Amino acid sequence: MAADRTTMKLLAKIVLYMSSLLQLPFISATGVVWDENGYVLYCPCMGRFGNQADHFLGSLAFAKMLNRTLAVPPWIIYRHHTPPFTNMHVPYSEFFQLEPLLQYHRVISMEEFMEKLAPTYWPPGKRVAYCYDAAAKRSPDKKSCPMKEGNPFGPFWHQFGVDFDKSVLFPGISFSSYYKQQWTKKFPPSEHPVLALPGAPAQFPVLEEHVPLQSYVAWADHMVQEGEGYIDSLLIRPYVGIHLRIGSDWQKACELLKDDKTGPHFMASPQCVGYNRNTAIPLTKNMCLPDLKEIQRALKLWVKKINGKSVYIATDSESHSKEIEQLFKGNVKVVSLQPEVAHVDLYILGQADHFIGNCASSFTAFVKRERDVHSKPSSFFGMDYPAKKKDEL
User: Fold this and answer.
1) Based on the number of CB atoms within 10 Å of its own CB, is 78 exposed (0-12), middle (13-18) or buried (19 or more)?
2) End-to-end alpha-carbon separation of the chain, Å?
3) 97-104: long-range contacts (C-beta < 8 A, 24 or more apart)?
4) What is the pLDDT of residue 19?
5) Distant-in-sequence, close-in-space partners of 266: CB < 8 Å, separation ≥ 6
6) Where are the alpha helices (DSSP H) in the chain?
7) Among 274, 269, 241, 295, which residue's Cα sits nearest to residue 362?
């Protein structure tokens, strides 16, 4: 028995040693063990899903850059027009699988972090907030991070029962890789084990260098099953999927294009005009807010090119289903679900035989990135043939 115990102790030491070499948190039989390399927590508090997805890719890259485990936050779904008019916080795994992310870097769901690790390693009384000194100036005392001021910040942290006990301010360093050494020197995990940030440690739109991380974002099995069910029952292949971002709020946003007030880079437009400001092509009104004439023109082109049998419309407003049915004289089936969960639209658009999106929309950007991963063709309203990236040539 003594020999067995000695053997078990030796094996445990070997596992711990190998774990440290691989820079992975040691996984015990009872659950997740604390990662001594530290953690990154943040609130996905800018915009709806498309913006949150852009920020997620950048945050994943930031955590890898600092060699800290990323606590993957839930998605925030706003219900401004639906009772009870409160935000929904939906775990990442409700829509996507966590496991594929581990192929790139260490992650843990924020729910699991708060349940299994926070009570011991990040308990009340030791919860430190980190933010720019400029952000702290918005707080009443001018020296505390405004982590829970307003919506969605307050409700996000409140759902996890988090109150912050102290603030640490940082001036003059951004989240880019250029500042890696400054981050690691200023905030070593031995002294700052959890970097809790008021927003994502990332830029919007997603940096070009982080776009390939989309390949690690994989749909949850039940989302695949639901999406394929709609495709099989409602659509006839080949089908064209389109994203109409034409709601009143978007109309106001696109008004800024008048008199070239924004330049070519406006919201998610780098995805189609190019990331280099010096060589970016002009962003036109039809690329931001296509009118019915442009919608019909683009659809007619691509339905003919792929011999399309049906059209799927995802929209935040009017679907123009009747006008599109009339355009094809009833020979092409037109479907618009307008589901309560927009991720159904995302999945169906991602599986289309051809996709036409909105150049400036981050919702479109998610679809376009996913399709690029699987080498599926896409275009934009006002841009039938997007320029290929250097690595695609």
Assistant:
1) middle
2) 65
3) 97/218, 97/219, 97/220, 97/221, 98/72, 100/216, 100/217, 100/218, 101/60, 101/72, 101/216, 101/217, 103/216, 104/60, 104/64, 104/213, 104/216
4) 43
5) 256, 257, 283, 288, 360
6) 2-22, 49-66, 110-112, 118-121, 133-136, 153-159, 180-186, 221-234, 248-254, 270-273, 285-288, 292-306, 321-327, 343-350, 362-373
7) 269
Write down the mean pLDDT value for the chain. Answer: 91
pLDDT-above-90 percentage for the chain = 83
Q: Who contacts 232 (Cβ-Cβ below 8 Å, separation ≥6)?
A: none
pLDDT of 27-77, one tens digit each?
432 378 999 999 999 999 999 999 999 999 999 999 999 999 999 999 999
**Residue 5 scores a pLDDT above 50:** no
- 89-137: pLDDT as tens digits: 999 999 999 999 999 999 999 999 999 999 999 999 999 999 999 999 9
Which residues does residue 312 pair with via DSSP β-bridges, in sequence order? Answer: 241, 335
Name the token pair of 203. Answer: 């830029």
Statement: residue 300 has pLDDT above 50: yes
**Which residues make beta-bridge pairs with 240?**
311, 354
Helix (H) or strand (E) holding 76: strand 75-77
What are the backbone dihedrals phi and psi of residue 310, each rounded to the nearest 5 degrees, phi first? -155, 160
Query: Under a CB-based contact definition with an 8 Å cutoff, are residues 316 and 358 in contact?
Result: no
* Structure confidence at residue 389 as a pLDDT band (50, 70, 90): low
DSSP label at residue 255: G
Spatial distance between the Cα atoms of 149 and 66, rounded to a whole number of angstroms:
28
* Exposed / middle / buried, residue 334 (Cβ in 10 Å: 0-12, 13-18, 19+): buried
| Partners of 378 in the β-ladder | 355
